[in-house]
């Protein structure tokens, strides 16, 4: 979890491959109305996110036996609570933490993503850092981040 541009997809894919689990990107589960809204530079609100988060929880529940890695912003505690509903004992949160300036720079360099860098401030404003998560700084290489995550996973 983390704000847009923190590396959730890259780290999630690498971790999933290493664990032998499928990787799921939460962005792929947004309804078209959410994608259109974000593409227009309008941040999502809680009402926009609710059906998306419920859908992701259902997807996570279907992978309970096999396991999976889901990359999702999960910015607020209530989002993480909803995502973990009925699977709390089978889930682990990994928080990819970075500064606004570093992430804005990364977002400005990526192409063909619906999330405009100008919306990053709204993500930082909404962010409620998790209390019970593996916290990894994104100012290091993906390989080092992955090693750190592996060492902290239960």
Describe the SSE topology.
Elements: H1 8-19, E1 23-25, H2 32-39, H3 46-62, E2 69-71, H4 77-83, E3 94-97, H5 100-109, H6 120-126, E4 134-137, H7 142-152
Parallel strand pairs: 1-2, 3-4
What's the quick description here?
With 154 residues, the protein is mainly α. 47% of the residues lie in helices and 9% in strands.
Overall description:
This protein is mainly alpha-helical and 154 residues long. The longest helix is centred in the middle third of the chain and has 17 residues, at 46-62. It has helices spanning 8-19, 32-39, 46-62, 77-83, 100-109, 120-126, 142-152; strands at 23-25, 69-71, 94-97, 134-137. The radius of gyration is 15 Å and the shape is globular. It has a two-stranded parallel ribbon with strand order 1-2. The chain has a two-stranded parallel sheet with strand order 3-4. Helices cover 47% and strands 9% of the residues. Helix 1 (8-19) packs across helix 7. The protein has 7 helices and 4 strands; from the N terminus they run H-E-H-H-E-H-E-H-H-E-H. It has one domain (8-149): P-loop containing nucleotide triphosphate hydrolases (Rossmann fold, 3-Layer(aba) Sandwich), CATH 3.40.50.
């Amino acid at each position: 979890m983390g704000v847009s541009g923190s590396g959730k997809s890259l780290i999630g894919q690498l971790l999933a491959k290493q664990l032998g689990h499928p990787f799921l990107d939460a962005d792929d589960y947004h309804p078209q109305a959410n994608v259109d809204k974000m593409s227009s530079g309008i941040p999502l609100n809680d009402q926009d996110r609710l059906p998306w988060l419920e859908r992701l929880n259902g997807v996570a529940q279907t992978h309970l036996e096999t396991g999976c890695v889901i990359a999702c912003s999960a910015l607020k505690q209530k989002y993480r609570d909803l995502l973990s509903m009925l699977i709390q004992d089978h889930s682990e949160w990994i928080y990819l933490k970075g500064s606004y300036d570093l992430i804005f720079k990364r977002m400005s360099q990526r192409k063909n993503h619906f999330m405009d860098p100008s919306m990053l401030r709204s993500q930082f404003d909404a962010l409620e850092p998790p209390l019970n998560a593996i916290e990894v700084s994104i100012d290091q290489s993906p390989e080092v981040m992955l090693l750190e995550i592996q060492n902290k996973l239960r």
